[in-house]
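Example record used in the benchmark description.
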Amino acid sequence: MSLAVRSGLVPTAPRGRRRPPARALAWVAEHVVLVALAVLTIAPVVFVVLTSLMSSRQALTRSLVPQTWEWANYARVFATLPLAQWFGNSALYAVLATAFMLVSSVPAAYALARIRFRGSHVIFTAIVVAMLLPPQVTAVPVYVMWSQLHLTGTLWPLILPNLLGDAFSIFLLRQFFLTIPEEYADAARMDGCSELGVLMRVIVPMARPGIASAAIFLFFHSWNDYYGPLLYASENPGAWPVAYGLATFRGVHGTDWSMTMAMTVVITAPVVVIFFFAQKAFVEGIALTGVKG
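Model output (structure tokens):
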């Protein structure tokens, strides 16, 4: 090193600006993987949208870009199918199921998280077992019960059980309630609040992200449900939701892939819009949900 550099007359290059070769390679590798995952996620969506704008002859050929942009496919979907009725059935199913779940699951999750009583751990274990139990195991006896109540052929056998709580929602909400400090509830009790008052005035406002996450989970599950409507509502076309309607349309018009893809885009659009506006609360609720026992 020269005397001028040692004496400080010539400024040296600031340290830390150049990234070490190992870190640079790690950064490139990390972002390449993320870009590849993004492409794998977006590619099917782009394929469905482009296919929905193709002619029936061009669909599923080697050509990936529409030769003629067939925007009329979407008009044909609304003209040939009872989409308004299917959307109404799906909205009824998803909204009522979500509302009933919140009314029943929020108090149940609060009781399991905050109220100490004999048998609480046994009840929580039973809820976890119910969450892991496949619905096909209980399909026959449950169907017989709803058949005796003369509710088959409708969506009510899928909506009404949410009044008794949803196992996954109770589990998710309980874990979120456990992350809220107990001091807030103790302060409310000292001010004279009952347990219901503590839940409604303290816990629910602080647990909005977790409640929103549970609601979005069940809403999307109800909107996309195919097995339940197949079991209970397949005999009544007037009760079909969009998911079952799409499957039925594919079975009848399996060769018209442009129409099938157009219908898929129309059915998926409301879910994408809802998630776009609710993603902040959804991600926050999932991130803040703890794993306390």
